[in-house]
Amino acid sequence: MKTALFLLIFLGLKLPSKSRVIWDTVQDAFDSGKYYARACGLGNGDSCVDELKLKLKRGKIKEALKGLQTFCKKGEANACYQLGLVYEKGTKVKKNKKKSDDNYRKACRAGKKRACKKPSKK
Length: 122
Description:
mainly alpha, Serine Threonine Protein Phosphatase 5, Tetratricopeptide repeat, globular
């Protein structure tokens, strides 16, 4: 779909109104990645995690996981929480309950209250 829209724009053809909305949404997603990267460079940890979540969605798994693990080790609660979600749901990685629970506990200790409810009660 993105390729077809790109070709229509590249060739200068007029887009139907629904296709234009889809293209704007795709463009917004790419623009948001730039803004997350800029805010991350300025030291905003949440933006760094958001940028890494986008990388996960775009298939840059190794890069995203490495970044999330780095930020989690630095005590960034949202990075630990996101790692917990990734391993719990098996998002582009093999499901791993132990890693999931460990990361939720780290996120909880770092102040992410939602993570405190996640680890299993074994």
